[in-house]
Amino acid sequence: MLAARFASAVAVSVAGLIVPAQAQDIQKIFVEGDIVRGNTPLGATGPICVLTSQFKRGENVVFRIRVRNLQGKPLDMAGIKSIEVALADGRKLPTRYGGHPPRQPTDFFWTAAWMIPENYPTGSLGYSITATDMDGNTVKWEPLREFRSWPSVIAGTVEYVKQAQQ
Prior knowledge:
Elements: H1 2-17, E1 29-38, E2 54-56, E3 60-69, E4 80-87, E5 92-93, E6 96-100, E7 107-115, E8 123-124, E9 127-133, E10 138-141, E11 152-154
Parallel strand pairs: 2-11
Antiparallel strand pairs: 1-3, 3-7, 4-5, 4-9, 6-7, 8-11, 9-10
């Protein structure tokens, strides 16, 4: 009997030490996307809108972004308050929503473009994407923490070629 009371007292004491786990906020929006080479006012430096992770100075890096709600529905300007692409060097890139390709869209998503300056250092480029919906829900997305999978600025000279408009 004494052992049972003791076990009961220990159980109550231990239960008092357990702090209830705080519920995590449910993620309400989700970011997905990719990176492609974009066209420039001077022309293209290779196939445009094709996935790539290596860019030379003078090339146009295009971040293509889609934000979805809990039901998987893509969010456009009516559902998104802001999307920001932040490069590891502190540079912030504005985004815009639109149809792609521009003349005969087959898809709609957000984009941010960055023309790599001629004096930009070579190497891997970390970045993140932060999206906020109209209800104030925010999510920050980053690529895998493996620098070899990040976009890279590589040495070399670009050659611009005029391509037919899509």
